[in-house]
Design brief:
Low-confidence stretches: none
Strand order of the largest sheet: 1-2
Structural class: mainly alpha
Helix content: 25-40%
Radius of gyration: 13 Å
Shape: elongated
Strand content: 5-15%
Protein name: Reverse transcriptase domain-containing protein
Mean pLDDT: 79
Distance between the termini: 24 Å
Number of strands: 2
Order of helices and strands: HEE
Amino acid sequence: MPADSGKACGDIVLITPDISQAERMLADFDKACGKIGLRLNLKKTMFMKNGLVSFAPFTLNGTTLSL
């Protein structure tokens, strides 16, 4: 998205106990953003986990996101 487009969104938080559900939620959010001309910056998009979630790669549209 060009810097002068005037379209921006702040931070969001998705909470779920399941990595695959989190991936689906983020993909749905990305799709909804695309419908209004926004897109996620995958270089800035990160995920966090607590000790209750085992490690698993977190991907969006084939791109692995930072932990």
